[in-house]
Amino acid sequence: MIEPGIYKEVMGSFPSGVTVVTCLDQDGGIVGITASAFSALSIDPALVLFCPNYASDSYPVLCASKRFAIHLLSAEQKAEAYAFAGKGKDKAKGIDWHLSERGNPLLNNATAIIECELWREYDGGDHAIIVGAVQNLILPETEVTPMVYHRGKLGALPAIA
Questions:
Q1: Which segments constitute the Flavin reductase like domain (predicted)?
Q2: How far apart are CA 130 and CA 114, in angstroms?
């Protein structure tokens, strides 16, 4: 048996980007989850994946919505990362967002946004593996520094020479 604390420490040693996945609930409110378990999956068709915990209160809403936006967070979006990592209905309180033409809630200031429709869902132990079919890609007009998660801390990715 793998000891969970050591497993988390080892996995936390791998730097990753930070995303927030958002959708609308049936009342039109924004729902979301912070996820560092995110990856591009396929170019043809264009697919991406993220892995929410089954215990997340946002997980069933994300699945029921059938569409969502994945925000690749900038280093300036720590408030968003922490807000959507929490529990409860008011995660977006005080966070600026707007609806896209596709009807997805979009957060301001991300390094990029990927709008998706649910393509498939797979079991992944205590997490789901959600695969999204990419419907739209949004890049900011100016270059933004991405956020990185490493050993339990959020920070800026320094410029790569």
A1: 11-156
A2: 14
